[in-house]
Amino acid sequence: MKQTKKIHQICAWFLILMVGILQGCDRTTKETEKVAEASLYQEQEEEGLSWETAAHTPFGKYPEPVACTVGRKSNGYTLEQALQDDVWTYQRFLADFLNIEFTNAFDVQSEEDFQQKVSMAIVSGDIPDIITVNGQQLLRLYESGQIADLTEAYENCASDHIKEIYDSYGGACLDAATFDERLMALPTTEMSHGPGVLWLRKDWMEKLNLPAPETMEDIEQILRRFIQEDPGGNGPGKTIGLVCSPEIAGDSGGLYMLNSVFTLYGAFPKQWMEQEDGSVAYGSIQPEMKNALAEVAKLYQEGLLDQQFLLRTEEDCQELLAEGISGAFFGNYWSSEVLPECLLKNPEADWTPYIVPKDENGYITMFEGNPNSSYIVVRKGYSHPEVAIKMASVQFDYVQDVEPEFKNQLNRDGMLLNMHIGYDDSFARSGATLDQALRGEIQVDELNATHKSNFQKITAYLQALEEGETPSPWDWQQYKSYIEAYHLYMETPIKRVTPVFVRETDIMRKYWPALEEMEQEMMLRIVTGEAPLEAFDAFVEEWLDAGGDLVTGEVNRLHTQDNRPDSRRMVLAVCLLSDSYHSMNSKHKKGRYIKCMKFQCVLYFFYIYWRTFPVYNKITEKQMNSLNEDDDEFKGQVQLYL
After folding, report:
1. pLDDT for 251
2. Contact 245, 256 (CB under 8 A)
3. Cβ neighbour number for residue 236 with a 10 Å cutoff
4. Between the chain's N and C termini, which has fewer beta carbons within 10 Å?
5. Could you give the CA distance from residue 263 to residue 357 in angstroms, rounded to a whole number?
6. What is the mean pLDDT of residues 593-597?
7. How does residue 563 score in pLDDT terms, banded at 50, 70 and 90?
8. DSSP per residue over 196-214, as a string?
9. Number of Cα atoms under 13 Å in the Cβ half of residue 467
10. Which neighbouring-strand residues pair with 376?
C-alpha cells in the first residue's frame, strides 16, 4: 500500500513538471510570436509581399491594392483635404500600411443619418463590404445570410493584444457575436465604468465646514446646506441641489443619473437580473424599486434634487456646473471631463470625487453595463473578410504606441471602423500604470503613447501646484480621474453585480418600446409627486399585462437555453428523436426508457451531435408537440433534462 502511494506521488510530481515545461514553452512561443509580429512589416518590406502572409497576419501588407467599401460616420474631413494638407488620416494610413483602398458606400456625420443608411442597406440586401450595426441588425443579417463568417479571420489576423483585450471580458463580448459556434461579427467593447461617483464642490464644503460624505443622510445634509447657505454666492434661491438627467437611472455609464441611490436599496432599474433560483427578472418591477423611488421622491419634494430636471438636456446639466449654479452630480471616474469649463470660469472651484452612498457595512453596490454596444460585420461574398480584423488590429493595437500628434492626425476624420476595442478594466489598468510611473516604479520610456501623454499632463498638474500656479483644467482633469479617483476606487469595498444580457427577439421588438415608455412615465410621476408611491404596485400589474410577462418568459427561455450544458441538449435530442419511444405503451417501459437514456446517448453521440445540434430548438419543439395528451408524465420527465 505504501509503495502504491509513493508511485502515485511520483506520477503526480511528474505531471506537474510536464505541465510547467509545457507552460514555459507556451510562454516562450507567445513571446517569440510577439517579437515576430512587431517586426513583420519591416520583414515584408525587405523580403517582398505575399497574399498568404497578408491573409494570415495582423499587419501583413497586401502585395496589390485591395478594394473595400465601407459605411461611415465621419467628421467631414475628406480624403481630398487630407491629401491637400498632407494629413495622414486613417484612410490614407491604411492604404499605405496595408494596401487597402477604401470607397465610402455612404458618409454621414450624424448618428441618426447613419442608422437610417444602415437600415436602408439591410432592407435592400446590398450592404457595404464592412459596416457597423447594432445587436438587432446583427441578428437580422445573420438570419438572412448576408454576413461572412469571421472565425478563421479572427484567429489569423487579430493581434495577440486584441485577443487579450477580448479575453478580459471573460468571453462575454465574442459570445454575443457568435452564432452556432461561429464568430459572425467583431464586437465593439464597452469597458466597465466602475461604481458611481458623486462629484462635489469641496471648496463649498470647506466654507461650510462639512465633512466628507459616507451615507445617504450625509449627502442629503450637504445638498441641504449648499442650497440654504449658498457658498457659491449665487444669491438667495438660485443655487440648486443635485443635478439629474430626466432618464433618472439605468445606464451603467450613469452621467447625471442616480444609479448609486437605487443600488443602495438593492434596486437595479432597466436591468435583467438573475435570481437565486436561476430565473431572470426585470429589475424595474421588483419590490426594491419602491423603496428607492421613495428616497428619490423625498429628495425632489425637499428641493434637494434639481426641480427642473425633467427639462434638462446633457448640455443644460453641464452649464449648471460650469456657471457654479450647482455643486453636486453623480457620474463616474471619467466625469471630470465635463468640468474644465467650470474651472476656466472659476479657477478656485475644487471638484472632488466620492464613491458614495455606502451601505451599513461600508460597501458600494454597482451593476456592470452591456459589454457590447455595436458590431462590425462583413458582407458575405467579400473576398477579403480578414480586412475588418486587420483594420481593428492596426487601429487598436499598432497605432496605440505612435506619437500622440500623429495619432491625433489619424483621428482627424474619425476611424474607418466606427467602434472601440479596450480592456474591460481599462480604468484600473491605466490608473495602476500611471500611479507606478509617478512613484518611479515604471520608467516613462516604458509607457505607451497614450499613457505617456496622460502622465505628462498629470506631472504638469502637480508641478503647477508645487510652483503655486493655476494648473491647466485639462491637466487637472487627468489627475482627478486617473490618480485621485483611481485611489478612491481601489480603497472602496465594492459589490459587483452583472445583469443578464440577451439578444433582442421578435417578442421584445413588439412590446418593448411601449413597456419602456410605461416604465419611464411611472418613475417620473412618482418622483415628482404627480402619482403616489402606491402607484408602483399598479404599474407592475399593468406592465406584465401589457406584454411584460411574455417578454420575461422569452428572456428566461433564452437564458436557460444559453446556459444549458451541451450534454443535456444531446440527451434530450436523443430521447425525442429515438423511434423506440413510439413503441412503448406502458409507464413501466417509459420509465425504463428514461433510465437507459445515458446509454442511448453514447450510441447516438456522433450522429446526434453533428446532425441535430444546430436545429435543436426546432426539433424539440416539434417532437414535444407531437406527443399525445396523455403523455404529460413523460413530458415532465423529459423536461428534467432541459
Report:
1. 84
2. yes
3. 7
4. N
5. 9
6. 46
7. low
8. -EEEEEHHHHHHTTPPPP-
9. 9
10. 132, 186
The full DSSP string for 229-283 is: H-TT---TTT-B-BB--TT-S--SS-TT--HHHHHHTT--TT-EEE-TTS-EEEG
Q: Which residues have a Cβ under 8 Å from the Cβ of 175 and sit 6 or more positions away?
A: none
HSE-up of 523 (CA within 13 Å, CB side)? 25
For residue 505, the SS3 value is: coil
- Judged against a pLDDT cut of 70, whether residue 6 lies above it is answered with no
**Beta pairing partners, 280:** 274
What's the CA gap between 267 and 252, in Å, rounded? Answer: 13
pTM for the model: 0.76
Residues 6+ positions from 221 with CB-CB distance below 8 Å: 210
Q: What is the bridge-based pairing of β-strands 100-108 and 66-73? A: parallel
What's the pLDDT score for residue 263? 97
Would you state the pLDDT for residue 562? Answer: 60
| Cross-strand pairs, 200 | 328, 352
Q: Looking at residue 527, what is its pLDDT?
A: 98
Under the banding of pLDDT at 50, 70 and 90, the label for residue 404 is confident
Reported as a single tens digit per residue, the pLDDT across 89-116 is 999 999 999 999 999 999 999 989 999 9
Cα–Cα distance, 503 to 555 (Å, whole number):
9
Residues 6+ apart with CB under 8 A from 41: 59, 60, 61, 97
Please check whether residue 461 is in contact with residue 474, taking contact to mean a CB–CB distance below 8 angstroms.
no
What the block records as the C-alpha cell of 547 is 406584454
Cα-Cα end-to-end distance for the chain? 45
CA–CA distance, 194 with 423 (Å, rounded to integer):
13
Cell of 347: 479657477
- Kindly give the interhelix angle for 506-527 and 288-301, rounded to the nearest 10 degrees: 40
> What pLDDT, on a 0 to 100 scale, did the predictor assign at position 234?
96
Cα 594 from Cα 623, distance rounded (Å): 16
**Which cell numbers in the block locate residue 479?**
489627475
Place of cell 437610417: 116
Rounded Cα gap, residues 610 and 180, in angstroms: 12
Helix (H, G, I), strand (E, B) or coil at 364: strand
Residue where the block lists cell 487579430: 158
